[in-house]
Amino acid sequence: MKTNRAGLRLSMVPYSLWILLFVIAPIGLIVYYSFFNLSGDFTLDNYKNFFTSVYLKLTVSSFWYAFLITFFSLLISYPTAYFLTKLKHKQLWLLLIIIPSWINLLLKTYAFIGLMGLYGPVNALLETVGIGKQQILFTDFSFVFVSVYIFIPFMILPIFNALDKLNPALIDASRDLGANAWTTFRRVIWPLTLNGVKSGIQVVFIPALSLFMITRLIAGNKVITLGTAIEQQFLVTQNWGMGSTIAVFLILFMVIILLLTTANERGMAGSGKKR
């Protein structure tokens, strides 16, 4: 027993070092710099400034766009994942959907700039059908559209895994008891795959809060998020203190979202055990 415990503790050393160096230390530095102004003096003004109307509007805007991106990603991903589970070579089709996520994000962004530009194929098609050229780039629509495209594979994967593990006998039992397709989905399929949906929401909503490269290249800085504000504070105004303060609140928002979804999952698991 002592040997097993010693081996377990030894195996935890690399993991602990990784967490310390690449999670705790960077967060500690961000918190540290958040208490300094441009002159390098200790101050709490950065935290006071965050609660002004400018940054509060920025936070609301970030949550709104993250919600839109997550909503449309879920709207597309759930039926897609359900359809994939019914295919014969479902793992192959899933791989084909995931492969685009391996391509560099910057390359995909520039590809959409070419597609949606005034002289791109999308506008050429619109001109052919008589609609005429449209300013698609540098709009809210283009930002949400490209973001949804990028995040869809990350939403599909956990939902697909949840649907694929679903016991078909439960669906058959629901139909045998007289439930129609909508009732079966609402009472059986959706509740049993909810954890997969929550995992998908986590991996989409949280990164969507901190997007900055897509806002600059696709939205033309017409869409400002917390990630864009952090980039501007660090690289443009060189105000590391304010940039760190925004990053601290962004981390807090992420932790709250994770805790809320994890707490719901634990609550469901606990109620299941009681039953």
Automatic annotation (TrEMBL):
Domain ABC transmembrane type-1 intervals: 59-261
Domain of life: Bacteria
Keywords (A to Z) from UniProt: Cell membrane, Membrane, Transmembrane, Transmembrane helix, Transport
InterPro entries the record matches: MetI-like, MetI-like_sf
Keyword tRNA processing: no
A Pfam family matched in the record: BPD_transp_1
Family annotation (SUPFAM superfamilies): MetI-like (SSF161098)
Subcellular location per the Swiss-Prot or TrEMBL entry: Cell membrane
Membrane topology: Multi-pass membrane protein
Regions that span the bilayer: 12-35, 63-85, 92-116, 136-160, 200-219, 239-260
Family: Belongs to the binding-protein-dependent transport system permease family. CysTW subfamily.
Name of the protein this chain belongs to: ABC transporter permease
Species classification: Bacteria, Bacillati, Bacillota, Bacilli, Bacillales
